[in-house]
Design goal:
Helix content is 15%, strand content 29%. By secondary structure, it is of the alpha+beta class. The chain has a domain of 98 residues: Gamma-B Crystallin, domain 1, CATH 2.60.20.10.
Length: 142
């Protein structure tokens, strides 16, 4: 057999082995939505990390935000308050868990989100309920 045939067979075997390894690679438990900045807590008005059908129309904060009433989404060209309208969240924090609160300035009930996790649809009490948010390094609630 010629050297050329062995080279082609060797390359083919390498490609097939590479595909086999890639097929068994483990995916991360929860991948961040592509537009959620590293180190941020990201919120969307609708489920599945969307606002008005767009993933880029999110609100995000680092450290904390004391009152969502002073922040707006843009839905179909109209400003809508972030306060009590959040339906999906992702904590893309690098070091800390983050919490959403039912009232401004850490007030009322809170829900904690472990870093690098999210919820594509808030359910029950928490759907359209958040009024403030803090990374756990800035609040004693979590």
């Amino acid at each position: 057999m010629s050297k050329k045939r062995w080279t082609i067979r060797g390359m083919a075997a390498g490609v097939i082995a590479g595909i086999g390894v890639a097929a068994f690679a483990v995916a991360p438990a929860s991948a961040a939505p592509s537009n959620c900045s590293s180190g941020a807590m990201c919120l969307w008005m609708d489920s599945n990390y969307l606002t008005d059908g767009f993933s880029v129309l999110n609100f995000e904060f680092q450290y904390y935000h004391t009152d969502f009433a002073f922040v707006d989404w843009w839905e179909s060209g109209t400003a809508v308050s972030v306060d009590n309208t959040t339906s999906s969240v992702y904590n893309n924090g690098n070091s800390y868990n983050a919490a959403l609160f039912a009232n401004p300035r850490e007030g009322g009930y809170h829900k904690t989100f472990v870093k690098k996790t999210g919820q594509s649809q808030l359910t029950g009490y928490w759907n359209d309920r958040a009024s403030s948010g803090y990374f756990c390094s800035y609040t004693s609630a979590c």
